[in-house]
Amino acid sequence: MRSGFVGIVGRPNVGKSTLLNSILGEKIAITSAKPQTTRNAIRGIYTRMEEDQPVCQLVFIDTPGIHKPKNKLGNYMTDTAVATLGEVDAVLFLVDSPWEDNGGDAFILEKLKGLDTPRMLVINKIDKIDPPVFEEIYKKYEETGIFDAIIGTSATEGKNVDVLLDKLCSLAEEGPMFFPPDMVTDHPERFLVSEIIREKLLLYLEEEVPHGVAVEIERYEEAGSLTRIYAAIYCEKQSHKGIIIGKGGRKLKGIGKAAREEIELLIGTKVYLELFVKVKERWRDSALAISNFGYKKD
Ligand SMILES: Nc1nc2c(ncn2[C@@H]2O[C@H](COP(=O)(O)OP(=O)(O)OP(=O)(O)O)[C@@H](O)[C@H]2O)c(=O)[nH]1
Ligand SMILES: [Mg+2]
User: Fold this and answer.
1) Residue 158 CB less than 6 A away from ligand 1
2) Contact 226, 269 (CB under 8 A)
3) In ligand 1, which atom is closest to the CA atom of 159?
4) Exposure check for the chain: N or C terminus, fewer CB within 10 A?
5) Which pTM was predicted?
6) DSSP track, 48-75
7) Environment class of residue 176 by beta-carbon count within 10 Å: exposed (0-12), middle (13-18) or buried (19+)?
8) Per-residue pLDDT for the chain (298 aa), expressed as one digit of tens each?
């Protein structure tokens, strides 16, 4: 039995969370077309079975995109990603575009150079990268000499994800099963629910508004085939509150409906979801507020 922890790192929006979901064949991590979607380290467990025997277990840690932070929440996000590098047995570094000197990738590469764990470069989004561009990315990173393997994937199309898993299982060392074989994540349902709501906020809102929201589950009542969930959406400004609620409450209603449908699939009961919007000015710069919203080491 082989096992190990694998960190997934990279700049925002390169497809880290989409790749995690593709590996698991289930949606654990929220994704969006907007950068800085993931805020915590998200754990997903992949167990390979052969003849009903687990032979390889990889615990993936999807991390927030590494970026230049503009507030304390951003510091927390980037620190979480960088700290993960030192806590895992192997690292997947995801990129989706050519290297830029002095850019975010160069910063991450410097961090990777200091590690002695296996590192793999994953060039994601090959479904939309032209072959010459792929070559350019490949060559540039190959020259660094620090990667044990370089592989192109499409997380949305599931392309080469099996090859990636084969490679990781072959790199993994003998080790114990960390989690039961049928477990895909150890995050509590409540957390996944709050993330689904945040994903819909990212989908329905533009620019700064969704980046300034936090979701807090205030009540979670399971009553047989119905689950009642009351969640507060915190935003940073009164004007943002108006935008989130929308004319006649329409925006919030749409967000609630989309979130409820997905939560029902996740937990397998009917869901009554009540959302309300609160303002907590500049919470992203308050150490206490970000910790209260769960952006802290667990
Ligand atoms: N065409 C294409 N799009 C992809 C692929 N993988 C991810 N995407 C898209 O890229 C966007 C960002 O995906 P995420 O998985 O949220 O990216 P992330 O790296 O987790 O982003 P952060 O959490 O913000 O750091 C989404 O719109 C995805 O659908 C891919 O293989 N091909
Ligand atoms: Mg993400």
Assistant:
1) no
2) yes
3) 31
4) C
5) 0.97
6) EEETTEEEEEEEEEE-PPP---SSHHHH
7) exposed
8) 999 999 999 999 999 999 999 999 999 999 999 999 999 999 999 999 999 888 999 999 999 999 999 999 999 999 999 999 999 999 999 999 988 877 889 999 999 999 999 999 999 999 999 999 999 999 999 999 999 999 999 999 999 999 999 999 999 999 999 999 999 999 999 999 999 999 999 999 999 999 999 999 999 999 999 999 999 999 999 999 999 999 999 999 999 999 999 999 999 999 999 999 999 999 999 999 999 999 988 7
Cα–Cα distance, 8 to 176 (Å, whole number): 21
Question: Domains in the chain, start-ordered, CATH in brackets?
Answer: 2-174 (3.40.50.300), 189-292 (3.30.300.20)
Q: Whose CA is nearest to atom 6 of ligand 1?
A: 15
Q: Whose CA is nearest to atom 7 of ligand 1?
A: 15
Nearest CA to ligand 1 atom 32: 125
